[in-house]
Amino acid sequence: MKLILPIAMLCFIFSSRAQNEIAVQSPSDTRLFAQCMFSIPSQSILDELTVEFYNTHPEIEMVRFDMHTQRALLITTGISNLSEADFTSWFGKYSATIHCVQIGVYGIDKMDPYPFTNCNN
């Protein structure tokens, strides 16, 4: 009987601490996706861009460029906001070729399926 109160207090302390850690981690654990169409002429340029993306943007978790369909998919981590202007600027001198941009929360927002049919940009 004497152990019930200390055990209950320990359970309460650990559960409240776990909830605090979850609340603290949630904003930084946000994963965003960004996808778009582009016009880039060669696979070697896409390979160079892939390396550049990973080296200059530590928030990028994954980047995929498809030469045949001319589309890109990126997953970010640790940032809660990504604007279309910021995203297109990552393409450097190829920024002007970016169109059909979609940005959303990975796992929550629906990704537009290829081929993109509702392009406004």
Q: Can you describe this structure?
A:
The chain contains three helices and four strands, in the order αβαββαβ. The chain has 121 residues and is α+β, with helices and mostly antiparallel strands. The chain has a four-stranded antiparallel β-sheet with strand order 2-3-1-4. Strand 2 and strand 3 form a beta hairpin. The radius of gyration is 21 Å and the shape is globular. The model is unreliable at 20-25 (pLDDT under 50).
Distance between the termini: 69 Å
Q: What Rg is obtained from the alpha carbons, in whole angstroms?
A: 21 Å
What's the average pLDDT?
Answer: 84
Find the structural class using helix and strand composition.
alpha+beta
Work out the number of β strands.
4
Ranges where pLDDT stays below 50 over 5 or more residues in a row are 20-25
Q: What would the principal axes of the Cα set say about the shape?
A: globular
Beta-strand share of residues: 15-25%
Counting DSSP H or I runs of 4 or more residues, the number of helices is: 3
Tell me the series of helices and strands, N- to C-terminal.
Answer: HEHEEHE
The strands making up the biggest β-sheet line up spatially as 2-3-1-4
Share in helix: 25-40%
What composes the largest sheet? Answer: 4 strands, antiparallel
